[in-house]
């Protein structure tokens, strides 16, 4: 996709995109409004007039793809080469707050993309030590949180969601007009009635949320690839928030960017991690394992039929080409049974997913998370619970089964 499309082609898209996409409309509006100094919502004629007058202005290039019958817009890395990123953020200091998995991955990728990056993290904490190990230098590009906020023009809040609540009064002091506030999760802003994170009106507030851990963000970037992320705008004070969010999404190491809103990002993310990605999968694994064990199967057999075959053989096939393809690569006996049992599992779990969505939507999940993760001993408590999983017979069995995998022989 070429990066030299003009506003003319972009405006051509406006006619169809504007009514259906809030972000699309905001994006088109901000480009044309800046060009024509429009102060009111533009009419079809004013779009066209602006587009005709500014045919030589390079515009963002977008790709509209068909996702199972619904058209969605994506941005791609090819349109944001390093030089363009450096041009867009040439006057900025990117202050990354937090050096957990996301802070580390995103800051190192931006640094490799030639942007000016500084780290802000609590002095002498785990993250501070990790940043030192990675070559960040105190007083040069590694600072306590408040100092980083002072120096940064783009404040990238990658502290844990609970820490964002406690540090907000400190951060807010330094969010002066014209700065940008960035998140990788809409949590703090969306649940502002609980977090008190209400950004000042005269700054841009944007989001880029990688669809994976910070470790993967870094590893894919180093491999010359990019993780997929979603981007959103909460506040566009500059009229350039959309362009900067897309560019920043690429600068942190993304390959493709999907559009979302802060609200949609939060609810899908919280539901996903509590559901299929983590909570549900451990619950389902454990339920099947326990039944097999209760019926006299050995630990190795129960583990192999529950976890090992899933993660080593079948789930990668789903990832590669879809569920039907995985099914079609299994025996007809397996296919018959899976087709018959899909419905009872769907019907049994759907009410749980509905309850989960409701708990996320009404803010109860956010409240629990803030309360638990704000305790001074939150890490120790989490570690205790994780150790209980680790000590369950299923996962102790897993250690032995893993040692017998072909690649470990
Ligand atoms: N992990 C993912 O898969 C993922 C994906 C997309 C977006 N996100 C979002 O990215 C953000 C960062 O997540 P993460 O995975 O990098 O790690 P995280 O565990 O959520 O955050 C870790 C960072 O928060 C700091 N921190 C914790 N409590 C603190 C406190 N009381 N005061 C000051 N700093 C404190 C830690 O510093 P210390 O080391 O000093 O404790 C560390 O630098 C979150 O908003 C998360 O929702 C995560």
Provide structural commentary.
The chain folds into two domains: 63-261, Rossmann fold; 274-408, no CATH class. It has helices at residues 7-17, 22-36, 44-53, 82-88, 101-112, 126-133, 145-151, 161-173, 187-190, 192-195, 214-222, 241-251, 262-274, 279-294, 299-321, 323-328, 332-361, 364-374, 378-391, 393-403; strands spanning 63-67, 70-76, 94-97, 117-120, 142-143, 154-157, 180-183, 204-210, 227-235, 254-259. β9 (227-235), α12 and β10 form a beta-alpha-beta unit. The chain has 20 helices and ten strands. Residues 1-59 have low confidence and may be disordered. The chain binds NADP nicotinamide-adenine-dinucleotide phosphate. Residues 261-408 form the KARI C-terminal knotted domain.
Q: How do you describe this structure in short?
A:
With 409 residues, the chain is an alpha/beta fold. Helix content is 57%, strand content 13%.
